[in-house]
Amino acid sequence: VCAGTHGKTTTTSWIAFLLHELGHDPSYLVGGVPVDLPSGAALNSGQVFVGEGDEYDSAFFDKGPKFLHYHPSIVVLSNIEFDHADIYRDLAHVQSSFEKLVALLPGNGLCIARHEDPVVQKVLELSQCPVQTFGTTEGATWRVGKTVHSESGVEFELFHKRRSNGTFQSSMFGDHNILNIVSGIAVASNLGDTTDRIRAIVPKFHGCKRRQQILLDSPVVLVDDFAHHPTEVKATLTAVRNRFPSRKIWAFFEPRSATARRGTHQELYPDAFGTADIVALSEPYRKEDLASTQRFSSGDLASSLKQMRKTAETFPTVDAIVDYYKERSEPGDVLVVMSNGEFGKIQQKLLQLFN
Q1: Is the peptide bond before 219 cis (omega within 30 degrees of 0)?
Q2: Does the pLDDT at position 348 exceed 90?
């Protein structure tokens, strides 16, 4: 079971794809649309099932997290933050759900968890099974070493218990995606697969739709992403900046999720957009459903970004955003669309500008 506030869809897709390529013939259930698999779910003949462990509630009659319905032998736990403000009170409430997930693991099971996340480390104190960690700092069982970003992807060195396993190349980009890949390498290695066989498969993985999906690469780059939490926004924009360091980056953002629509993380968003050059914001989705005291303010975010000497504007409609971009577009721009919903089909409207 692949769990965590961020990255679980990509990680689930990656592990399912990796184990498929290694010959395990896994069954899988992904909460998204994988690029490299024939569908988001399959029941196959192998002895491994790879499932996305969602902390969101299961149904209107079952308000517990979905992952409590699974009985995993291995859990990949990438991170834990406060999200889903419509069902969780605070971070401690979120943490309690992950504690229950880890408690499901049998004594002969395995938890593969993020080394640098303090909340994850707190949850791991309750583990009754072996734990391996992955991360970027000393002490991680699986540690990412030197990393080189380019427009074609990323190359990174991987250490296991301080011993180098050599370098890996991926068409994915962003430090968060490197860690997603490393967690999958750890899973396959614990299932007995060799590093050399795994290394050959890493470049073949292209992620999921709407997860840093490149819809257009010329004359501009158009990236479609599911980011809505400030941590996700920052990770996505940082990844884009590392891949295209000298290009002008446009960020188009719709506050749509239950958390993004609320003012819960209002103060975190200015820093999250720090690597973008121009930020175009819509009003929160169905903002009239929330009291003004609870609601996220796109205007306040734009004001904060202007104080940081960023160009930032709010718009009443998607068409107004597209018109604003059209008047200022230049070849080589990188456009990053971020929303966990439809965003008024802005992706298609931007694509039409270049057809």
Answers
A1: yes
A2: yes
3-state secondary structure of 223: strand
d(CA 355, CA 350): 9
Strands 110-114 and 311-315, sheet pairing? unpaired
Rounded CA separation 80/69 (Å): 19
Q: Are 210 and 346 in contact (CB under 8 A)?
A: no
What the block records as the tokens of 11 is: 């990680």
Residues 113-136 as b/e (b if ≥16 CB within 10 A, e otherwise) read bbbebebbeebbeebeeebbbbbb
Q: Strand pairing of 57-59 and 62-65?
A: antiparallel
Q: For the chain, how many residues are written?
A: 355
Three-state SS at 273? coil
* Assigned token pair, 132: 């391996």
Q: Which amino acid is at 74?
A: I
Both tokens of 314, joined, read: 């709010």
Per-residue DSSP letter, 244: S
Residues forming a β-bridge with 163: 160
> In angstroms, how far is the first alpha carbon of the chain from the final one?
41
For residue 260, CA distances in Å to 12, 44, 106, 118, 119 come to: 24, 37, 36, 23, 21
The pairing of strands 41-42 and 57-59 is unpaired
Q: How confident is the model at residue 355 (pLDDT cuts 50, 70, 90)?
A: confident
Q: How far apart are CA 17 and CA 172, in angstroms?
A: 14
pLDDT tens sequence across 305-319 = 999 999 999 999 999
